[in-house]
Amino acid sequence: MPTLRTVPGLLVLALCLAGCGAPSDDRPTAAAPEFVVPSEPAATSEAPPPDAPRPTKTATPTATAKPRTVIRYVFPVNASNVAFQPTHAKYPATDIFADCGQPVVATTGGVVLEISLTDTYVEGQPDGPNNGGLSVSLLGDDGVRYYGSHLSNVRPGLEVGTRVTAGQQLGKVGRTGNASGVCHLHFGISPPCAKVGDWRVRRGVVWPATFLTSWRAKGAKSPVATVAAWKRSHNCKA
After folding, report:
1. Could you give the domains of the chain?
2. Which of 40-54, 66-80, 118-132 holds the top average pLDDT?
3. Whole-model pTM?
């Protein structure tokens, strides 16, 4: 019967026009398929023989995550008989008192920004870049600048651009510059605004005591957020 044979064909044609036709201009096109590598081989219709080895599962390949950089901090004077105050005159910094000649070390890994090898301070002169006597400033891998001054000497061979690791010796505790004749390390934390020459910022703009307390106890309290907040609010003007 012709009529009965043509109905399925017409039905298939109608369904195809309704669901399989080309999209109209106002209908969004389907997104391209995303292909995923299978984690194990697809099953086959034919069962393997009983004594066949079982397939080994393989892990799905994934992108290798970039390892997170871990910043290590250490106390800047490598000595047991050390004291420091939470406050400082005129601006935020800390004086770390220790015997002259005790090792001064890099607080964290980084690159040397500035070195002063000559004590040109004259007693009674106004505050200025010579106050620190012999000194070293370091740009840490955390983006923070660390400054130590009043050194008795700077480690031989240390130069601007030298890369150092946390705990590596930079010099020795002394009393050069405006140290009032007392052996100690002036320690300042700041953002590297001009990197060099900006001595008012370099000498210290945030209080170091809470960080020093952590580092002395083998902790890793970071000054990054505190330094960044100071930079935003002060625009590098000390």
Report:
1. 83-234 (2.70.70.10)
2. 118-132
3. 0.72
